[in-house]
Amino acid sequence: MEIVFDKGIFIPGLDLWLDSTRKKEFCVVSHAHSDHVARHNVPVMTKGTFSLLKDYYRKSNPVVVDYGEEIEYSGFSLSFYPAGHCLGSAQILVKDKSTGLRMVYTGDYKMTPSPVNEDSSVIPCDVLVLDATYGKTQYIFPNESEIIQTVAQILNGWFLEGYRPILEGWKLGKAQEILFHMLNHGFKVVVEDSIFQICKVYESEGVQFPGTYRLFEGDWAADEILLCPPNRTKKLMVQHYSAKRIMRLTGWALDYASGTRYGRTMIPYSDHADFKQLLNYVGQSGASTIYTVNGFSELSGYLMNLGYNASHLS
Ligand SMILES: [Zn+2]
Q: What's the CA-to-centroid distance between 271 and ligand 1, angstroms?
C-alpha cells in the first residue's frame, strides 16, 4: 500500500486523505489539535472531536462516528478507535476492499491510561502509520503516577513557602489531565479561559472531574493553583503576584537534565507515547510495513535495524 505525506497523509490507491492541514473535499480528522485539521468540505471524525470543532466546521458537512463504528465507502471502510491523547482522539483503521490489507494510522496517541480519555489499545494491521513525536531512544517517560506524586509534593512545598503555583500544559488534552489529577489530590484550581471552555466540552461529553474548579477572572487566592497554557502568564496579568513559581508539564522536559528551563520547573509528563510505547505498538500490531510520521526519522532507522520494513514519511 503506497502512502505519501504532503501536509497530511495520503493513500493514492484509495484517494484518501487523513489529517491534511490543507483543505480537502473529503478527509479523516484524527483529533482536534490545530496541526491535524483544515476546513474540509467533508471531514470525518469522532463525536468527541466534533464537539470540540463544532464551530470550526459549521460550514462543512461532517461525518460523525462512534468509536468502534465501521463506515463503508466504495473502495475502503473506516473505523475509529480510542487513541488516549485527548477528547475524541482516534486511531483510524482503513480496510482496502480490493487487496484486503488493513492499514492503521495511530494519529497522536498515548497508551498510558488517562482519567479523562478512553483507554487506547494496539490495533492489529498489515501497514502501520505511526506517530513518532518522541521517536528517539532517550524519550522514555518515568512512571506517570509517580510523576503526579512528585508534582503534588513540589506544589505543597511551594504553598508552604508562600508561593502561588502556576501549572502550564497545552489547553486541549494535557490541561484536562492535569486538572483531574490536581483536583484528585485535593488542590484548589483556578483555570485560564481557553482551558475552562474545553473542560466544559469534556463535561458535556460525560467526563466528570473529581471536584470543582473556577474560571480565572483576575483574582487568585494564595491557596489556589493557576492552570494555564504555556507562556500565557503575561497575558493573564499576574505580574503583581510577586511570590509565584511556574511548573511546565511536557515530555520535552527530558531534554533538560537540570529540571529547570526558562525559569520554570520542567516535569516530564506527556499526552504522547514514549519511545518504549512506540516500539511496543510496532511489535504488537503485527504490521509488516511501518511508516513513521512527525517527530524523528531516527525511529524508522531503529526499526530497520530490528529487521522491519520501515520508512519515515516527510
Ligand atoms: Zn495532538
A: 8
